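We read letters as residues; the integers encode the fold. Take this protein.
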Amino acid sequence: MRAQFVLSEIGVGLRRNLTMTIAVVVSVALSLALFGGSLLMRDQVNNMKGYWYDKVNVSIFLCNKADAESVAKCAKGAVTAQQKKDIEADLKKLDVVQTVSYESADEAFKHYKEQFGSSPMAGSITPDQMQESFRVKLKDPEKFAVVATAFAGRDGVQSVQDQKGILENLFGLLNGMNMAAILVMLVMLIVALMLIVNTVRVSAFSRRRETGIMRLVGASSFYIQAPFIMEAAFAGLMGGVAAAGFLVVGRYFMIDHGLDLAHKLNLINFIGWDAVLAKLPLVLAASVLMPALAAFFALRKYLKV
């Protein structure tokens, strides 16, 4: 009988404040969708870091004849055969180095043609203008400074470049976008909480006569508060279900179908469905607990029961 009463009161409250309930559902859905999206973005960035950092190389570019005339570091002339042997031998001695591979000027020119053959400048580039290089695979991509310190000012070395630095700019941009999403999520979350509190207070005010009678007959505080808390929790749960739907549809549409980013951007290792499904229970739990706690604290002050 008590359970039936509580459920009936929930239905009455939701119908009386239908407009505000819809606003609560929408705001909770948007804020939690952004919350789940930011968690997935963080997983995506970490996944990309793990994937790309494992493929990062340090490139040691060697001086050629053209560099000897225009680059101060190559003022002593193009790299010699003995210097190349010494550089390769010293690289292999370093504990942080996993593998060392040599790329000749002809190989560099071939790779350039494959990647930029349609460029207007491609026709003006000749093999002798390309630089020989050593491509160094590190055991730990964070140890670039060890190689840079040892070889940056060495005779025959034009420059030492770390591909990780290029990736850091990309990951910095992605992290910035993620922080922006979190900021918007926090704003939407505050709006949702304010709507929940106002909805609960309006509902409590419209039923103040009933709650007064319940106090007089000795009803407990929890028994009086339960319908209001469950109204907020139910509205939040509807918003949470909508947010979970947004995440599933977004993953399906953007990566698997629709935009089909998984095939168009096949160089990116996208997160799988397991990452998305792992976030759904958290989103649903937050959608129930957040409104319920907001309603509980609002009622403690408002009803004073």
